[in-house]
Records
---
Amino acid sequence: MRALHVVGEDLELRIRVDRRIVRQQQRAVGLLGVRLLREGLHQNSPVENATRFVIENAVEILVAGAMRLRVLGCSGSIGGQQNRTTSFLVDQDILIDAGTGVGDLSLAELTLIDHIFVTHSHLDHVLGVPLLADSVMRRRAGQPPIQVHALPATLAVLREHVFNNLLWPDFTRLPHPRHPVLSLHEISTGQHLRLGRRERHIEVLP
């Protein structure tokens, strides 16, 4: 899977999934590209209208390799059921951004999330992270922490301005410093990761 490309005001999400064809022993690649211009999302542009249609009709996209991509939100603002800020659920356990769309997941679905990729530190992409941690902390007792993956500058903002025991409790140390519900993990451009219950291949794009 390829994910997370931010250049200036443009947000590009790419997902690439490989699957093995048994008879031919070849690899087929399913490519899904979602390109959202953030400037357009904050304005009433045709891009926003198109993505709003996706949300209103609760479309769930099935991608090659049995990967499931669920669009939880892709707007730059809130207001009515059609506007939820950016968040995508990959399979059942990987979030790409954590905007207000995360709130549509049930508590049982939230508890299954093991990884969160944050593209950047704007509130419309991160506000679901602390709320999710608070919601599932007791239900995930005894499980590994939810891993939040982001560039160093984004993690620094989360540490200083979100999990600072002023705006929100520091869930990287709760319920116990040795067994927190959240852990923060730096990623870098060009890095390849394999994670999730289905061991999805994720590449951080420049």
---
Amino acid sequence: MRRLALYCIIYSITFPVIAEETETFLREKLEIKGFGSPIVKLTKVHNEFDLMIGARGAVLLNRALAIGIGGYSLASSIHVSDPQSNFEMEYAGLILELVFPSDKLVHLSASTLIGWGSLNNTANRNWMTYDPYYDDRHSYANYNLVDDSFMVIEPELDFELNMTTFFRLGLGISYRYISGVDLMPLTNADLRGLATVFTFKVGKF
């Protein structure tokens, strides 16, 4: 009985202290904030270095989990051996991000984009002439809005610096996994690759 009483006393003393010090994601009051961020990526596509320009926006829950969308476009076209081929690349998707601990001056964030992309051939566009005296054709030939599409999964790891309470700078690295390219002479391997990521977050954190 004495031991049981002793255990009860120790438990009653230590439990409130543990409960006060333990931080959890699922709190009674859910904090909802958000941010937007222009993004620049230095990457290699089809054996050539290039820039990707994009942006993302997200809802931030309890200053730890961000759920949003993002999209990126290759700054210049992909040149291949065929003179009639000149491809533009872009992709977008859902982004899940974990930030820990966000109140520190320098902290980490890990995110993953899961989405869909497209390749568009802009080199061979034969427009139909329009003459109001002879016909009223408004269409054009040899134009496909999307020449090919692909799936993309892109994990990313960033170091973030809190410049102000509403502005953060990020420097990180990502890997772009591509699947589903079926457009000769390009392959999945031509579009996959590492990227150096520069992020500029603005919002309520």
---
Amino acid sequence: MGMASATQQAFRIRDGQSAPYNCASNWAAALNVRATIVAGDDFAVRISVEETAGGGFNLNSHLFYSRNGGTWTEVDDVSSVVREVDNTGTADDYLLTSECLGSHALTFVSGRFSDDGAATSTISINNHWTESEHHMELIEADVDDGDVIEFRVYDGTSALASYSRNASIEVSKSSTTLVNKDMQAKWDIRELIYKDFQAKWDITTL
């Protein structure tokens, strides 16, 4: 009975590697609005789930993605297209005590944060709603400019009963972005050459 009542409701996309996981930081777009994410960058998706039948539901939040309307695929720490990666500012399975995704008639239950590619610990909802957040990297080699990546929370590997909306991002691989990354790579190479030259100079002056 609990499974039949679990529904994904709202979402919001967060930008950045070490953003604090509160309601005020680093949002990439408004509530329930698709965000543009640069290929190769880190981002996070926060999603709300509700249970309304009173049957009780134990959610182990795990993220799945679909690229351009394709198959729903598990997001883990080695998946292609997107994968969960370590967040330097927040521990995996961190308790999310703030309601970030709008007001709700139901009582809020604290959710969980994930960055290790595995399902979160259990979140028990019974005529409640909750939020989970998943921190990921958009894999540059696996995506094209303009790709749309959608996200759904699963209970482990089982889909919820219904989805009011999917979370989503659009991929940016603009020429400006690629040029900037190429310039940074060249700068890094020059810096390594300089450090090598400096080391050799230091040796000759001993």
---
Amino acid sequence: MTVMRGARNAWRWIVVGSTVVLGTRTMIGALIRGRMTLDLGIGRSIRALGPITIDVAAPRDIVFDVAAAPYGPRPPAELRRHVEVLQRSPGMVLAAHRTPVGHDEAVTVEAVVLERPSRIGFRLVRGPVPHVVEEFRFEDADGGGTELTYHGELGTDLWALGRAWGNRVAAVWEETVRRSLDQIRDAAERRARSKAPPNAGAATGG
């Protein structure tokens, strides 16, 4: 009888342990994919994102328009696959951003403030961490180009455990931003070249 009772207790702990492990894995998966935000408000830690600065050989208004294109009234089809505007008001949108994560995708929902041509601000509404604020700054540079700078901050709860999670999220977040900046630069420079006047250096001599 004692042996049977011990076996039942062992199985009970195995079931409890398995449930905890599966629940933890499910929760982590939901956090990574932005389907759940853990906002406890205790042990909050804040870390910087960026700064990341790139030089773009295009005027500031063109660079801004390229960066803001996903949030416009008629975004290109390739951008609509990654960004969905959920709500729109003057100078601001609420948008869902989709980023591939392995065989799945992460979805973050952010409030986006558009201040043409100098700034685009972002505030996280739903995502893998409880707090993110970011901005793109557009400054005129020498030679008619643009200096585009990204910076922000990311916050997590639960002290050291949250900081470890925040560092993991921040690495992926910043890499995603770097890819976006490269895409903005390439598209803006292509648009600037297409708008440039024909080269007048081929004048004929008499």
